[in-house]
């Protein structure tokens, strides 16, 4: 396999865009090459097979969702109250919705995982590790609530983002995305 990290990242970004636009069935080496603007056959030089491409695309979506250092710093150095947690959740939702194609690609990967046991195992391990890390971070930082708070926020906010990106009219009358995040946090996190 070829080792050019910038080209690999560009191919994976093209795979993300392809998944979001065409679904998993449209994710072919040729489609990735075309979307990346590289010669036909390039993607097959970087990924052993389609399963490898799917797995590495899953990793790349996580890389794209990682917060900038200043977002971490704000949580670490700021207050430990419901208002601060609300701001952190708003920042998270903003990051997840800033590049809709990345989030939509994760949904496509999850759907494809229902048909591919290896992909399911890989995504399950990655998402579970991320959830565990978020729970540990929440507890270490002394944020309000406990383990269940993080799990409920994970469930509610992921569904909120999914609804916002796929069926925005459903919640449009309920308020802005920021307002909805605030309502979720206030419903989940106990008042001190």
From TrEMBL:
- The residues that make up the annotated DNA-binding region are 28-47
Glycosyltransferase listed as a keyword: no
Query: In what residue span(s) does the HTH tetR-type domain sit?
Result: 5-65
The reply to whether Transmembrane figures as a keyword in the UniProt entry is: no
Keywords for this entry? DNA-binding
What Pfam family is a match, any one? TetR_C_31
Query: InterPro entries under this entry?
Result: Homeodomain-like_sf, HTH-type_TetR-like_transc_reg, HTH_TetR, TetR_C_31
Q: Can you say what this protein is called?
A: TetR family transcriptional regulator
- What is the originating organism of this protein? Nocardiopsis exhalans
């Amino acid at each position: 396999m070829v080792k050019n990290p910038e080209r690999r990242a560009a191919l994976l970004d093209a795979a993300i865009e392809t998944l979001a636009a065409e679904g998993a069935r449209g994710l072919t080496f040729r489609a990735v090459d075309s979307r990346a603007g590289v010669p036909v056959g390039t993607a097959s030089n970087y990924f052993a097979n389609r399963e490898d491409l799917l797995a590495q695309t899953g990793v790349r979506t996580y890389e794209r969702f990682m917060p900038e250092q200043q977002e971490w710093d704000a949580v670490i150095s700021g207050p430990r109250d419901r208002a601060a947690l609300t701001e952190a959740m708003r920042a998270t939702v903003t990051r997840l919705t800033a590049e809709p194609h990345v989030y939509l690609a994760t949904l496509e990967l999850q759907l494809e995982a229902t048909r591919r046991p290896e992909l399911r195992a890989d995504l399950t391990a990655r998402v579970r590790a991320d959830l565990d890390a978020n729970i540990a971070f929440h507890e270490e930082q002394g944020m309000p609530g406990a383990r269940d708070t993080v799990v409920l926020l994970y469930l509610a906010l992921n569904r909120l983002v999914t609804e916002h990106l796929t069926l925005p009219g459903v919640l449009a009358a309920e308020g802005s995305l920021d307002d909805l995040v605030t309502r979720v946090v206030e419903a989940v996190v106990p008042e001190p």
